[in-house]
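step: validate -> pass
step: tokenize input -> pass
step: predict -> running
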Amino acid sequence: MRRLVWRNLLRNKRRAAFTVASLTLGVMLLCVLGALLQTFDPAQTEASENRVVVRHAVSLQFDLPEAYWRRLEGLDHVEVVSPLSWFGGIYKDTRRENFFSQFGSDPETLLAAFDDLEIEPEAAAAWLAERRSFIAGRALAEKHGWEIGDEIFLQGEIYPIDLNLVLRGIFTDSQDEAQENQIFFHRDYMEEALGNPGQVGTFWLLVDDLENVPEVIEATEAMFENSEARVKAETEQAFVLAFVQMMGNVELLFGAIGFAVIVSVFFITANTMAMAVRERSTEVSVQDAWLRAREGARRVDGRGDGYRHRGRPSRCDAGRHPAQPRGRGTFVRAVALPDADPTVRCGVARIGGGVGDRYALGPRAGLCHGAALGRRWAAQGGVRRG
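step: predict -> pass
step: emit ->
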């Protein structure tokens, strides 16, 4: 059975290869979509559960007053408040491989609020002491070949300033290596270049306990409810997923693509099966005719009138011509030839049976050839009699 399956599977090797490749590609695409969709799950994000992000209630495009910093530090259950401002400068050129996150921060509070960042104490002290310095993630430093003391130039795209920075430390992230593709520099350095506007992009709050996070969020929004710059407070997980929502309904999009892949796989399989069946239609027809012929032969063998039976003479044998030998053919009905005598008719039947046995196609095929030979035999006999 296994051998038969393999022979039918490899009947058309090119089609089998393309079918397997199509099915494999479809399954791989489904797996990739499922993995990407899982990364957007809030439960799968590598974000701290006790960090709260405070931003402008309208959009991230609007900054918050720097004066909010000290007011947020006075909230209950808040241990550290660290400001972060997105710079978004151009490093070397606008190619995607040269893009990375750039934040203006406060060195004294950054490492306390982001306790998952690990850096050598000497490097942290050097960064704190030099206003023009920055720290970079290990993955980013290895990507660009940076070493301690190297200078980089960032061309301002959002802000009308350029920054010259010196690398003083390399940090690692114990929870998420993706966080190592960013740099942090002194926010005061950027503020001085901008003329001290006193604006901050976001504030990051470290809460003492996870159970107090909802209370801190509610108190933060209530504090600035009547201010000109209202705020929105949310957990770090919700803040990260807000960027995903900007792309639209990703779950619906991936679901539609997955459904299209499943439908395509179904039609590919159905078309392959249909082609295989269509190629075997001739074989099936011949086999069916052969089986029907065998069944017809068995039925003919059970009758006595007008048929030749094994082991005993039939009516045709009774009127057999003395010179005509007894045949051993398949038992068929005598052909009715209007202008031939009984001896010719019996000979035609015997010839038809012999041809049918020879070609194993049953009595009907033998009868057809026998009829043609019988007519020729009858014509020759008429000429002789004439």
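step: describe -> The longest helix spans residues 250-279.
step: cleanup -> pass
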